[in-house]
């Protein structure tokens, strides 16, 4: 299956305004930058990794670098597309780092966020202001100003995401965020809930309860989700043998990896890869 890679973006930052803009992209694109797609009005479909979403109005899509994105049919969007790299994010004040970690370290769990009218209005103002600043003539410290806008937008989106999971206390939120950040860094070598619980100084049961309250999924399910997503990307877009993928993800044997993958993806690694080898033939 053919694949294209996202082109370099000047200064690792870009915001584009769409006004009933038609978008097509049959070939999957491997993202090199984090992306926020703010859809005020839309029609069509976007595919992100293995998931398929309608481009409905009043919706945010969060895509992390490394994910695969394509528009399998002609789609129309009114709204904004915001792209930024990790190096640009470093310009943003550190107080917003937790917001980025929660939203993008496990983007598949926050891929689509519906917006109410109030959130839509607030985000429209912020994105419009950022786009205006982006389009102005360059000046000293312009990138710092853009990073400040990005921080505000990220905090606002994190609050929208938190409201969707309202009902758990601040301590639980902090523990969940710490867990998600840890998973994003260590999921390849750490597969067990108890390992993460030990690093977070809480019990495995407590950690799983927190995840269920915050994300609607247990801790083990979130860990496995990261592993399966990485395995699928490797099977689909690399020529690595299954054995190498298994060892890269720290499974003891290829057989253990195959059993894990089949249990979670409902097919063997070989069958999953074959789906894409034969794609379009």
From TrEMBL:
UniProt keyword list: DNA-binding, Transcription, Transcription regulation
Domain HTH araC/xylS-type: residue ranges: 177-275
Phosphoprotein in keyword set: no
InterPro entries tied to this protein: Homeodomain-like_sf, HTH-like, HTH_AraC
SMART domains reported for this sequence: HTH_ARAC
Transmembrane segments annotated in the record for this chain: none
Top-level taxonomic group: Bacteria
Pfam family, one: HTH_18
PANTHER family the UniProt entry points to: ARAC-FAMILY TRANSCRIPTIONAL REGULATOR (PTHR43280), TRANSCRIPTIONAL REGULATORY PROTEIN (PTHR43280:SF32)
Protein name stated in the entry: AraC-like DNA-binding protein
Species name: Dyadobacter fermentans
Lineage of source species: Bacteria, Pseudomonadati, Bacteroidota, Cytophagia, Cytophagales
